[in-house]
Task: inverse folding
């Protein structure tokens, strides 16, 4: 991390730059802090990579101080309900859509479904103390959840608790991570700008026998962390 970026980070801590505030351009920052313009551009890049700042969607040359998320770093297995409780917050959700439809190729492949198999698709806005922290799309193979209804998940119920009522116990999970940008619909739901960079997680949950029993695609308003042995 270069010296100009460190100086700006210090000024952010002092409150000289506010969350959401657009930074001056590289030439102005170079003059203000006494560095070359090329070095200032590299410093801006460091701020973006460090998560202190972000590019303004639709205006690549503009950089602003990133608004802090309600949750910042989240570690462990990323159980939304468990994470909220660990933080002393009340987990909740609001179901936006719930439908049954034939599994499309990407979901069928991940969940090892046959052609023509159906999935129950649920889209939920995830809340902590009533504030949005993410969007989650659950894909539940219909053959494993005969009779499942939207009402079973209402009231902020845990998806895993409902799964267990059908006799499906989660054992392990496999995650896929990809960088993306928010599309207009999801951005409006979350109160963010379209084009905001996000990390998308697709998780396949397996039972003790290794059979996929659920898939989920999540857009979270926090930085996910993993604990690994080395």
Result:
């Amino acid at each position: 991390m270069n010296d100009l970026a460190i100086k700006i980070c210090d000024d952010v801590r002092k409150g000289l730059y506010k969350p959401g505030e657009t930074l001056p351009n590289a030439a102005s920052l170079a003059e203000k802090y006494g560095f070359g313009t090329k070095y200032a551009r590299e410093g801006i890049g460091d701020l973006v990579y460090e998560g202190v700042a972000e590019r303004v969607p639709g205006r690549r040359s503009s950089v602003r101080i990133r608004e802090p998320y309600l949750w910042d770093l989240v570690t462990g297995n990323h159980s939304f309900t468990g994470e909220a409780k660990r933080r002393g917050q009340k987990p909740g959700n609001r179901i936006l859509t719930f439908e049954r439809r034939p599994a499309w190729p990407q979901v069928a492949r991940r969940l090892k479904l046959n052609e023509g198999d159906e999935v129950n698709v649920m889209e939920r806005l995830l809340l902590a103390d009533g504030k949005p922290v993410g969007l989650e799309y659950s894909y539940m193979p219909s053959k494993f959840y005969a009779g499942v209804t939207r009402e079973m998940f209402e009231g902020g119920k845990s998806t895993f608790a409902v799964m267990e009522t059908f006799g499906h116990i989660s054992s392990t999970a496999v995650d896929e991570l990809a960088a993306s940008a928010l599309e207009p619909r999801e951005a409006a739901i979350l109160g963010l700008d379209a084009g905001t960079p996000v990390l998308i997680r697709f998780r396949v949950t397996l039972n003790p026998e290794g059979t996929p029993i659920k898939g989920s695609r999540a857009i979270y308003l926090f930085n996910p962390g993993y604990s690994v042995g080395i």
Notes: Helices lie at 3-13, 26-33, 37-49, 80-86, 105-111, 159-165, 184-190. The beta strands are 53-56, 59-65, 73-74, 91-102, 118-128, 131-141, 172-181, 197-206, 212-220, 223-224.
